[in-house]
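The aim of this short unit is practical: by the end, you should be able to scan a pair of folded records and say something sensible about each. We start with the first protein, listed as its amino acid sequence and then its structure tokens.
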Amino acid sequence: MLARSWRSSVGVAAALLVVACPFPDAARASCAAPSLSVLDAAVPAMTPGDVVIVEGRGFVDGCDDGGGGCTADETEPATPYADVTLTLRQGPRAWTLGTADASEAGEVAWEVTVPAGVTPGRAVLVPDVGSPLVVRVRR
């Protein structure tokens, strides 16, 4: 008897959920993670001492990907990140290149000087939020 009562309660709760928050007509998209780019190159190359601009997109907490509530008419707030730190990592070494605030659109940019101690080869630009970007250091 207890099992039947429990199943009935679950069924009623599920029915109420569908009535209170029906499935939307359109599929919802998911928001992209924050990402970086340098000079729109697939694998950017840089030399120690170069001044480069590293750009980022999607640096917001939350996003409006089709509605934040039960209907597509409701918006989900997106708050731009503040003080996003950019680090250059190469092997066990790391250099903090700077911090920047994202715009309302989630865009951020750092104007940085490639550190003198970076050696030729692979390195990675790493924001404290989002996806890293592999770069090549040349002589």
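Turning to the second protein, read its sequence before its tokens, just as you did above.
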Amino acid sequence: MEKTIKNLVKGNKKVYVYLKDKETGVRFIRQAEHECFTFCDGELPTKRNFEEYMAVNPDFTLNYIGTIGRISIQTKSKSSSKVIDYSEYIK
């Protein structure tokens, strides 16, 4: 299976992506743009900064995660969304 960002959201599910450092974040943003992802308002990924956690949506959009989402992720509570360590995924 090809390790694309689009493959992460197959099956119509939202995925949270963990970007551990600047190198990983830049790679993710570039790959997302290459795969035709945009932010929800249509802005290209490379026109904005990445954050430690990003949401990848099945409609091929990205968005930042608010406080409640971060708490959910960081406390590892039962979330309907999966958290992917992007650096591990692309290995």
